[in-house]
Design brief:
heterodimer; A: 9-stranded mixed beta sheet; 9 strands; globular; B: 122 residues; alpha+beta; two-stranded antiparallel ribbon; 49% helix
Amino acid sequence: MTSQQLAALVYPQVSAYLGSYAKPGGATIAALWYYGRDGLSQLEPPSDWDASGVELRIAAVPEVTLEPQYAQPAVAQEFRCYLVLHGNDVSGLDAALRAILRNFDTDTPALLRAAQDPQLLTQYSFTIRSS
Amino acid sequence: MADVQINAAQILAALREPFSETNELLGREMQRQLTDPKWAWPTQPSPRDIVDTGRLRDSYQGTADGLEYEHAYPVRYALAVHNGAVMRNGSQPARPWVKQAVKEFDFAESYAQLAQARLDKL
């Protein structure tokens, strides 16, 4: 599965809660970003895009893992994801996370709060597994 | 016919200590991962280790409590370093040194060897 294929499955579940990127000129698109598609230099959306609301970032390149099995190990992919809050509406962030947890195989989400560090945005980080 | 006597308390005691010892080895593997210069970073030098000030590395605590063992890095930013984080001034990539240690360290095999050595002495 590619990150685009994963996003096609995830997006319908979270679209009601996602915020947007405002591009220069006023056009807006859903706040969904595949990060790292061109390596670490592409971790961020373009600096002149203004994010608001809940943003979902999905790793463009999954980590491939071997899951122990009785006979042969199974190959699985893990996509690291971040649900990031730009603003103060935590309820949308939590609702988006719940929608993902209901529908996908994830590890335990970790919450980072903006109050911990002035440079930090409130966010959940987690991985979505696919076989 | 040989007389076989089993002392369950002795066996349990012999199995308990290797659990802590194996966790100590796992803790060392976590520290090795943290200091291994293999983690990609957006600026040079890359790859690099995860040691900037040494505070994260030095914060490691491994604590045995009966049949539980806790590995901890009790510094405020440990989770952001491990999982990566989106910041106002740019993102930092995940460098999951604990997860990697758990993946690469064969806990069951290590425990089996240490436990067998103890059991052989009974």
